[in-house]
């Protein structure tokens, strides 16, 4: 890289959760500087937020339309290189389409859009423009998730037979959307969150992780979505039985009402020769079990040869210096930035750099939500996965 | 108790797995003496096994018919008080029925019979005779499982919303039934194991645990059974979505091909106020999570007032002296023995003594297998649970 | 074995802690029957305890002197084969000496005697009589402790450099000896417990474990004993730096006032090539760390070839069926019983059978207490270990 | 804060370990921009490193003397606000003194200097200049370490009785300093590392953690330092028994040859009412054990009221989004930056902002090394702690 990349931001004003996370992740490796933003639809918040981020007043915009227009008018080396979109789900599509139209690369929070239809249009736009879109499916940024993927790809576990992925959270165990919790309010509002709350918010992470690690695609689902808190207008819990295109079977469980649980995403993948287990709460560890050998504890940052280049590329510290959620998030930004810089510099990114979620992953995520909702409403056991 | 109880055994000769477990469990507390046995259909094995157990030659029988007849002819204080049946599934029913007819109480390994029909007949026989039948659903013998049940019953978790129960094993990951593994051979043979291998062997344990802890009954299932090892003639993996009669939802996952897994039965139950997690590999610990409080680590044998009398009654040692599978098994024998002794002595057993699995639990286990198989073969999503 | 062995018991009446543990352990494997006892110095308790154990009235004795005399007068095949001594520390020596004089083999709770001098006399008596004395240093009965010992012996870890062993308990955090806790009362009374409470009760376990696993002997100690609860008349906490005869160094930490801890004995041993870690609270797991390989999780009962015959000989169940403290205890009884039976039968015990703690281990334990107390009272850093 | 703070760097060129860590930590929160550096004594490396960090050529210096002079000549709002010193131990003192003389605030890697004498002079200089010096004792930056400190301070555990702190690493298990490992080479070279390798590198962290959490000061040490790898010229292992000024006792264990261990710093502190345990490998968890209550699992980022403001101030994400080593490191930078900004802005920093290690902590660290070395060379058991 010859210079830091310049990032603009849509959404993410003060008190927004995920916008702050994106900034921490973008800052960490010193490859990106946050240059401009349309940080809130509330002008007061937008200005205050820009000031808190030490943005130039001239580049603290009140709307994204204004930002794209103004930035596009700046000289190439001054204008933003890409824009990060961290608005609620229903407000992803419009700024993303417009950014691409203006020639800006895009980083976007998941789920990629409000609807599958939007996702398809967005994918088409990305392909037309040849720009880069990066989707922040954070959990695939963890080095030991990448290690798991590498081990499956290299056949270490043999043919994959079974996937169990679960995502318990407890934060919606009460009717918090009626008690002034803004995050709970929009996430349980079908006009803002999309067709499913639990699957849009966390189920897609689990599905992405399953497909990412196994390299297989879901072909059929049998889903049940539940609203377990009385008075809630959207689902808050669900289970999905899965079939994959490599004949593996799976179960996906996601709940926002698993009282007392934090963010305990866990995946287990079993093949003919062994299995892996990864738990987001202990992310630097990958348990590898074997049929006829003792289980092994693979650790991020270790110096033994068992770690894939995809794992080591995504570590910053030696074993025993825990890297966490923000580093996983930063890995996505870093790989995106390295890839984008290669493009700007006319060089070739490595396979490790290119390993970040794309518009295709976003599209599959939206299809997952759609198919799960369809299945949940059906009396038939299996619903073929339609894209 | 005024004297040790005398136990006879059908099956459980040398090299049989579960028979040895039953003896360890029966011995431990010094309340039971193994007095006689029809330990094998192979006469040579039967005699050798009796000798190894220091049984009197006169009470080492070659068939259970012979044993029941001979023992029944002995004076009351000499004959066996009860018989334990540890033959393979298909050979439970006949000796159990005959034992009851001869007036012997029965301990029986799960699944209780080969078919649901047999289970119904057996239940009827138990009721007719007024004898005691104890089913060794081992995992409900653990003190922290009983603690979980007590906490649910006392409303500590609020209304129960969700149950996740899983039972991964890996021991059938290869086609071991073709490689001389006798245990694998009968367990994957539909003429010996019953309608389902995975559900008969381990799924019933998981289902029993879910109903035991929650006190709720399964009302509907949506099941998928898989044969994931090529060449196998029975299922070896499965998942079941569950509905309970208290409106809770559940997921049950069981696999014998989760390569590298041992016997990792785990259950999580979530209510309005909190949730519990119990893992058989760490059985003296019950994690209790709360909505607005730090999670707690409840430990068997602790002296704080948080433990139910049902937990403390089933511990032998103070906290930090791990009790395990054999002690859980022994708890079932001990409670059965205490209850039987009360009956013999004309006294009243406590609620804690009476807390061991019964013929009713056995019947529900068989119904579970049947309903899961029915659901698995159906195109409909939900199958109502038929007894 | 041709018959069950007959066991007598000195101490261990109702409400005594460790006597009940001995019986559970002796019962489990069906190799031993409890035949007689002098269970309490209180005659009422002695009789009631004998009845609760279903002992014959004629073999429920009021004193051990009476028991030894009466049993010795019985025919060989009727009299007890060995006696277990489970009185408080100060009352070990006299019955042990007398039992040996009467020709009875002995099982004895640790610490073996009240003083080092007694231990020496007892060792001399054992050697003179040629009888077997078994000391119940429970923790060396765990299969994964034996696995650790085997790995060290086989050089898997290379030359041993460092040992860390710790034994935190919290049960004496209050002045319970003044609040009616009988166990606390005698254990903190120097006329009953010996020179050190913390080292006599738990420090010896830790020291034995360190020497047992490494096969090395302590040569020098630098100790500090503390009384951390005001008003207590004995120590309740201590630390000891260690030198071993193989040039390894060590640290031993023991505390009875580590508030909230249960019985968390843990040992770590590091060599040139790797290290092991074993924790009594999770006893079926042995973590093995390697310099240039991922750490391994060795599990009791596994069927891979990594487990030593000394580990597998001491397991009753397959991996994933947790065996605990009582099974470890029972392993000591079982190995003692097998060895004694071989002697009675005129056959040769295997090395695995012979692997139980002996009078020599008891003597080293007493020397450990003595040397630690000497060191603690000294201004000099290092105290050479005197036997 | 009105603007980002400008940071210069001495040392930390390409391939240096700790310099990169400092930059990741300084970047993360967007409060600091790396503006200039004298990154290596090798001019080629210095220039290349500056380029890789996107530093202006004019502010990529070849020596720190040059940097301080040039930066001091810049207008106040352009010059660096502080300098971070990340050279090996022996090269901390000179640039730190000079920076202070030039009026620059200082962030410095531990141990603060090469010798205690230097540390005293540096402390004097800091006091004379009134500038801020921040020492990066990383582990005190973890939120759950701060929670532990708060709980002790608030008396939650009662009077503190016992501290166990351990720091096992295995990376020096081979004679790596002879095999081209530059890090190993200087850390085991007494002309570069100071009087003790193991205590300078990791023992000081452990000692700082013990004093930080308990709020007590070490008054006496009884130490043993070992060289366990043949051929090494410095110690690589040690143990220290501790006395504190609040009458608590302690044990500190540190090893660089605990083969297979990563960076497993762990501390346990026990008081009259309970104890805490914190392990750096699982840093978002604080286990709190109680005398008469179940143990609790306190988790960083949780929303219950049990967390101190000092813990919550140092979290960026909700519970279940693991923050790690880099975030702990960043907490130190962030608190330093907030404090420095307050000073620049003329406002008052909060107690939470002021909570970062100071020159006093650095001085105590150097004294710890000195006293431990003195004790290790002494025949006397206890060495009074001399500052």
TrEMBL record, chains A, B, C, D:
Domain Gfo/Idh/MocA-like oxidoreductase N-terminal: 40-135
Molecular function as annotated in GO: nucleotide binding
Species the sequence originates in: Flavobacterium xinjiangense
Organism superkingdom: Bacteria
Protein name (database record): Predicted dehydrogenase
Classification via Pfam families: GFO_IDH_MocA, GFO_IDH_MocA_C3
Entries under InterPro entries matching the protein: Gfo/Idh/MocA-like_OxRdtase_N, Gfo/Idh/MocA_oxidoreduct, GFO_IDH_MocA-like_dom, NAD(P)-bd_dom_sf
Gene3D superfamilies: Dihydrodipicolinate Reductase, domain 2 (3.30.360.10), NAD(P)-binding Rossmann-like Domain (3.40.50.720)
Domain called GFO/IDH/MocA-like oxidoreductase: residue spans: 145-277
